[in-house]
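Sample pair:
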Amino acid sequence: MLFRGGRPVIVDWQTSMRSFPGADLAWLLATSHSPETLAREPELLEVYRRGLAAEGGPDWTEAELAEELAWGAFYWASVGVIPYMHTSEAPEGDRAHHRFRAMLEGSIAAAVRWDAAGHIAG
């Protein structure tokens, strides 16, 4: 996210599409997590939530952000299977297969952490 003239400009170099903020945030936190970011995730989410509202984005409550993250994690966990399966016959140690597996596992863990199943059922 870039800011120009006090307004956010969203640039997604990997998958150019019109999206919702929860999907991008879910992708970032689900696939780029570390023990340190997981330990500080509530704090990171609060900074994000406040910053998004301050720059003209949605003024989500904590519950609304949790809902967005859950749906974002559900989306990424469901589509993450495709590239992983595409590289499933790659030689042992293949970088792409390893990375797609890590992305899929991170997305599934985030879907569990953010109770995606509960949000879908609710």
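The chain has one domain: 2-11+20-121.
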